[in-house]
Amino acid sequence: MRRRLDELCAPGVGQMAGDQSSRWIVRASVAGLLVVLCFLAGFSVMTQTRAAGRSRRADAAGTMSNLYQDARFWVGQEESLERKYRLEPGAAVLALHNAAEQSLTADLQRLGRIDSSPADHAVVRHLLALDAEYVRASHGMFRAVDAHRPALVIHFDHAIVDPVFGVMQAIVYHNATVASQRSLGAIDALRRNDTAATQAIVIAFGAGIALLLTLGVVIAYVRRRLSAAHLAGTSGWRRSRSPTR
Q: Cα–Cα distance between 8 and 93 in angstroms, integer?
């Protein structure tokens, strides 16, 4: 009696075992798919975060370069207008010189507000101090020019104005060159990062597709094996149940 019950239940037990195996395979495939999707999403977020950081650095470097180039121009204007005022004093030249001073000060103040290194901020503070000292010295020299006191003008020029202006000019010119190089380097790094990120995303996406296809092939193969085993077991059971002649 027990043997007969086992024979009757054999196909059902095999089918239940096959169904359980199939469910586990489907669950494992879904888990693998989720892992792939999480990896692609995390990789994309990481790539975008890195690219955004490089973009901010490139923007800051470009802004700093532009401000230093502008400051360099106004330093040159101050020097030119200062000499012109000594030769041709007048309200128009003085107004132009004052405008150049104000523009240079504004550029230096904007440089101080850029999120850069402590060393860069220290240089800007030094330049602002030199700029303020130059403004006081140049205005004193202009008053000496207006008073027609050539000896005092020469004293201001050689002993006060030129030493301060020479240091300020050298720092501004040097930093303008360095800032330009930094900006070009940051732009080049951003371009390389974008190219590498695009290539990495394409590779990761291709790897994800390949993994999904591999999972699909494995699922189809295992399902075929289970179906074949189930059919073979069912056929054997039916043959064993057939009456022998």
A: 113
Residue-wise pLDDT tens digits, 117-133: 888 889 999 999 999 99
Q: Which residues contact 112 (CB under 8 A, 6 or more apart)?
A: 121, 124, 125, 128
d(CA 81, CA 100): 9
Residue burial 101-122, b: 16+ Cβ < 10 Å; e: rest: bebbbebbebbbeeebeeebee
As a whole number of angstroms, the distance between CA 118 and CA 167 comes to 20
Q: Distance between CA 103 and CA 111 in Å, rounded?
A: 12
Q: Identify which has the larger pLDDT, 145 or 26.
A: 145
Q: H or E segment at 87?
A: helix 2-87
Q: Which pTM was predicted?
A: 0.63
Give per-residue pLDDT as tens, 58-105: 787 888 889 999 999 999 999 999 999 999 999 999 999 999 999 999
Residue 192: DSSP 8-state: H
Three-class SS state of 117: coil
Q: How would you classify residue 148: left for phi > 0, otherwise alpha for psi between -120 and 50, otherwise beta?
A: left
CATH class as words, domain 22-234: mainly alpha
Structural contact between residues 226 and 7, judged by C-beta atoms closer than 8 angstroms? no
